[in-house]
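Fresh eyes needed here. I'd like your take on this protein's tokenised backbone:
***
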Amino acid sequence: MAVPWEDVLRDKPAILEAASLAVDAALLEGVLMRTEGEPNASDVVNYAPFTLLPSAVPSALFEQAYAVQQDFNLLVDAISQNKEFLEHALASTIKVDDFTARLFRIHMQVLEEGLAQSVFLGINRSDYMFDCGVDGTPALKQIEINTIAASFGGLTSRTGAVHGRVLKVLGKSEEASRLLPNNPSKGLALGIAKAWELYGSQSAVVLFLVEEVQRNIFDQRCVENELWNRDIRVIRRRFRDVFEKGSLDDAKRLYMDGQEVAVVYYREGYVPKNYDQQNWEARLLLERSRAVKCPDIATQLAGTKKVQQELSRPGTLEGLLPGRAEAVARIRATFAGLYSLDMGEEGDKIAATAIADPDRFVLKPQREGGGNNLYGEELRQVLEKIRDSPERTSYILMDKIKPQPAMNYLLRAHSPLQVSKCLSELGIFGVYVRQGKEMVMNMAVGHLLRTKAIEHADGGVAAGVAVLDTPYLV
């Protein structure tokens, strides 16, 4: 996938000048993160890492990813409402994975009490790579779908302007004009605002549930500002604040510091280290409330790797989306090979295959947040250790996607400027709102392109491996 600036990559003086301008442009546009040294203060900030140049993306695959997003929104929503499917899909996982088991127990408890929540808000991001397979023709293959705390919708809304400026400086104004507009933060806020409106209390607030360490605050502020622009009040709290000061009234309305909460937008709560006993109690309080949770716990469970693998079984999609044959076909076309490691003959066979040929696969645990997957020799060692143990059921296997690398410069603060062989991953943000049984909003609201050097197998921007990028359609 050639780009029309291959010549520039070898022009060192032009690259140095463009890199200097790019960093200033990123700071001007607000492509910012707090520093590792001071993650909870904005006195000193730096630019979020990004590519010097946009990366080529096949236009047909880009359009395919957008076209299937509303289908994925419907699918995630359908899974979240299907107690039997979640129970069946996660049966083996919850025996060996305590984190998934605790989420599942809260889900069941809330269902037994009766759902107080009547408005449902989903914000997800479906991530893909371009697999160049056997014949070299790129195909869109889904890596995963993130149903909780899908990040970088804010910063990516500001990255395109930086790349446009860089291309102009390099004498590529025509190419700069072809970069697509992209503002996921506006779309995410639109969904939150709709859920807030349907909740039906003008004085209620939106609660951003945030981490103890908040390096990525500016990404969240982009969405927050869109809400303030609509005169919707936003408060930021942590789990421990909810534990100490959160309460429910008799109608299960949620209050924080005396303010009624209409929407809880999770930017935390997706990995075990986010929880101690108090935080689990806070999570249960939130889930029992009338407030619109984004996501509710069933939707978080719908995004687990085990559910992803179960969806690839013949007939499963048809059961979840009856009468939607075209949607099912669009979704299935994006699936890579996914394999269960449940105990039994099927699991034994695929485990043996992966141990014999580990470079064909990725071993994925039930975790979000990047940096958790296992490859190559490490995959082989872990599988050999757990092949006869029920512990293996806490993982799934997936075919390793083989994209075509491209050359680019990755700009990171305090790092030398050098050209790298890179791989890119495209994410599409989806937003939906359902009231009772009626879907009142279902949209794809923007995209995120992340790029990393080829030697880094796994991990996202927040994990310190990938950097922000902008697609250039070819």
Summary: The chain is about 40% helix and 25% strand. The mean pLDDT is 95. Residues 250 and 289 are 10 Å apart (CA to CA). The first strand starts at residue 32 and ends at 34.
